[in-house]
Specification:
It contains 7 helices and 9 strands, in the order ββαααββααααβββββ. By secondary structure, the protein is an alpha+beta fold. The chain has a 7-stranded mixed beta sheet with strand order 1-2-8-9-7-6-5. It has a two-stranded antiparallel sheet with strand order 3-4. A hairpin with a 4-residue loop joins strand 6 and strand 7. It is globular. The relative contact order is 0.16. It comes from Lihuaxuella thermophila.
């Protein structure tokens, strides 16, 4: 769950809904990239692991707020990660490779034994998958993995900020990709553009959310609807 505090309320965005937006960004890139369908599938489904976890709101008693993807308990999160990567791999092994690399990267410097075991497990998965990829697929894995990370950041930068804001510390200075720094520029509450622009044409994104108060009541369900300009 992506959790955004708003006074005495919380805006909750499901991880898979955020990932689907990441896929929309990739699908609208003006410049072509190798293995388009598999890569867009990977980007769109990289957080499918969270679908089941995000159905219920798990409350962090210590912080008196919902758990987010950042502080969610590690054991169920790792189990979900493994299941989600396998689910993507069953549909498309190239996409499974990209998702495995994405999740393994979270634990590159892990101190927790469970995190280290998870990374070792995913590195073994990747070695197995490499044997089944074509030479052309192998050549594009690293560049499309970086594309996944970039599109993930583009979506997170919107989901973690209120409309017309770019204050979240992860993205306040923009997002680096291929030696360039990219920023979201808000024209108004419902329209924004990426600068420098990477998209072929304008498009609409819709981000479902739940609004929850600090008494744990779901106040309403809503949808953020934005037009991405070029």
């Amino acid at each position: 769950m992506i959790v955004r505090r708003r006074k005495n309320q919380f805006v909750l965005i499901a991880q898979h809904d955020h990932a689907l937006i990441s896929g929309e960004f990739a699908a609208h890139f003006a410049e072509p990239f190798e293995h388009f369908d598999s890569t867009v599938y990977a980007i769109s489904h990289h957080d499918v692991a969270w679908v089941e976890l995000d159905q219920a709101i798990l409350w962090n008693e210590a912080k008196n707020q919902p758990y987010s993807f950042e502080d969610y308990p590690l054991a169920p999160k790792l189990a979900a990660y493994t299941k989600g990567i396998s689910q993507v791999e069953e549909t498309d092994r190239y996409a499974g490779m990209l998702c495995s690399k994405h999740y393994a990267s979270f634990f590159e410097h892990a101190s927790d034994p469970a995190g280290r075991r998870f990374r070792e497990q995913e590195l073994a998965r990747q070695n197995n998958l490499l044997q089944r990829l074509s030479a052309q697929e192998k050549e594009s894995v690293d560049s499309n993995f970086r594309l996944l990370q970039f599109c993930d950041d583009l979506s997170l930068a919107i989901c973690l900020n209120e409309p017309q804001q770019n204050t979240h510390p992860w993205y306040a200075d923009g997002i680096r990709y291929q030696g360039e720094r990219y920023r979201w520029v808000w024209e108004d509450e419902h329209r924004l553009r990426l600068t420098p622009n990477l998209f072929a044409k304008p498009f609409i994104i819709e981000i479902p959310c739940r609004i929850v108060d600090d008494s744990r009541n779901v106040m309403k369900r809503d949808v953020f609807r934005y037009q991405i300009l070029v």
